[in-house]
Design a protein that fits this description.
Blueprint: E1 6-8, H1 9-14, H2 17-20, E2 23-26, E3 29-32, H3 46-83, H4 90-151, H5 156-165, E4 167-171, E5 177-181, H6 203-211, E6 243-245, H7 247-250, H8 253-266, E7 270-272
Parallel strand pairs: 6-7
Antiparallel strand pairs: 1-3, 2-3, 4-5
Helix pairs in contact: 3-4, 4-5
């Protein structure tokens, strides 16, 4: 789930108590309480977009400067061609050759300088973007996983890496970011609540699915006389009761509805694997 970097007091009040703790007051607004990671602190996620825009502006400026230089050279070359019409004297030929050499050297020097400056600036922007992307990932991806684990009352030390390995952060077309749960095939997983094959699984639903898996039982509070931490949906022998459907089949509305109806008839949950 994505956390806004800055929200109003009304938006903060509307959040769950667990998520309210992720923000601190900043004047009349509330901002995400971000911790330092490897000595770096993400203070403004929009800097990534600003850095990307700066690179685009720089590239356009360099292209414009190169075109202007080329246009000037073309003009001079045209003038040279006009001067060289007819049979030039030996002295005129020497002047023309010297001028052509001078123009070629000047163009080469300007082109090298512009390229070097562009590459240096671009390397700096790439480094900055990489650092800020890492900080953003720590805030959205890792922060979302921790929030879901805490909400479920589970042990972060036992679940965090498993949750992170089944989720990822992706960039939207508009430059914003979101997190999503993925399956073994690397595709987004659908929510068990999905009725049309479009609603995606949340971090909370992923953690709840793990609660029903005997392998992750030690990470959850004991829920019965045996104190195993497994829920009633976990059968003996470590196998989860219920019906399952693959991610690929779940994308087919007909197959999904049929599997859901069968699961409801059996009084068992439908799991998308």
């Amino acid at each position: 789930m994505a956390l806004k970097a800055l929200i109003t007091a009304d938006e903060h009040k509307a959040l769950a108590t667990l998520l309210q703790a992720e923000y601190v007051a900043d004047g009349e607004m509330f901002k995400v309480d971000i911790v330092m990671v490897n000595g770096l602190l993400l203070t403004d996620p929009t800097k990534i977009q600003t850095a990307l825009q700066s690179e685009r502006v720089l590239s356009k400026a360099a292209a414009k400067a190169t075109k202007e230089a080329q246009d000037k050279i073309t003009t001079l070359e045209t003038q040279l061609a006009e001067l060289s019409t007819g049979e030039p004297s030996e002295q005129q030929q020497k002047k023309l050759s010297a001028l052509e050499k001078q123009l070629a050297e000047r163009y080469e020097k300007q082109a090298k300088a512009a390229t070097a400056a562009l590459e240096k600036e671009r390397d700096g922007l790439k480094s900055k973007i990489g650092t800020q992307s890492k900080q953003l990932s720590e805030t959205l991806h890792v922060g979302g996983a921790r929030a879901a684990i805490t909400k479920a009352g589970a042990k972060e030390k036992l679940l965090l890496q498993n949750v992170l390995s089944q989720t990822r952060m992706v960039e939207n077309d508009d430059g914003t970011y979101r997190t999503e749960v993925i399956g073994r095939d690397g595709q987004e997983r659908l929510s068990p609540k999905s009725t049309d094959g479009k609603l995606l699984m949340s971090f909370d639903e992923l953690v709840e699915e793990m609660r029903a898996d005997a392998e992750f039982a030690p990470a959850f509070p004991a829920s019965g006389p045996g104190g195993s931490g497994s829920s009633s949906s976990t059968a003996r022998g470590g196998q989860s009761r219920g019906h399952t459907i693959s991610v690929v089949d779940a994308r087919d509305p007909g197959k999904y509805q049929a599997a859901r109806a069968e699961a409801n008839k059996a009084g068992a949950p439908l799991q998308i694997v």
